[in-house]
User: Fold this.
Amino acid sequence: MSFPLVGIERTKTAVENMIAANRIPHAILIESDYGGGKSTLAEYICRAAVCESGKKPCGECSGCRLQIEGNHPDVLYIAPEKDRKTISVNQIRDIVSDASVLPQKSAKKVFIIDPADAMTVQAQNALLKVLEEPPESVVFILTAVSRNVMLSTILSRCTVFTLNAPEKDAAADYISSVTKKEKTEAVEALNKTRGSIGGAINILKKKSAGKSNDLANSFLEAMQNGSRYDLLKILLPLEKDRAKTIDFYNALEVMIVSRARGCSSPTLSARYDRIYRTITEHKRLLKLNANISLLTSLLAIEMTER
Assistant:
């Protein structure tokens, strides 16, 4: 299974060497801007940790397949609980206790804390206890927009990977190869998304049929000036079409990433961050056949919360 990110050769080499040597650290922190690939890299390393093949991650063994489907018993995701913006100390205490339990299927049990910068100070201190003396069978993978929000004591116990914006020429070549579009179009899409490769691909794949972009634009306008009812009315046509719903979420993600990267207001930036995380979680659930009507209703609620 190939490395999932482009334009970050130093990180690619470090991660691939780490996996090939079977030396995945007990604690990893991945930092990047919005849409910069931190969650993608976290999933890749996690897959390598639970892979049952000689060449990891193979993407085909039962361990990889279970992880891809979101059903691996030894992979646990930690995020803010419903209606909360932070990861609480009680959530971390639960995983600290769970870390002492041996894996069920794989050689490693993986805890993905995404976003780790949502942990309260008390939660970070609780996590520090297990990072100081980690069980041999446990891997913690943390993601954050910036390492600066993490306690120095946490950082000192993590291997840190920083995902900088990829070199534009390499990114454009990759996008062009994936979308079969001209390189000039790829560069234009990268500029629109402020360097987000995933966002640029989403734009180009939908360029011939821009209904998803139009719908996402209407949704964002209603978010600024309309009511929750207005948002639900815009989303109503999506309820019976999962593919179109995913396309809409992709387009909305691109627009939120672009706005977040250009935002100077801490309050507004925090709101974009919350919305971005909601979108990415909903996309994951949609691919697992979650109820479309329920997710779109939750999205309308999230978008109208201040």
Observations:
- DSSP finds 14 helices and five strands in the chain.
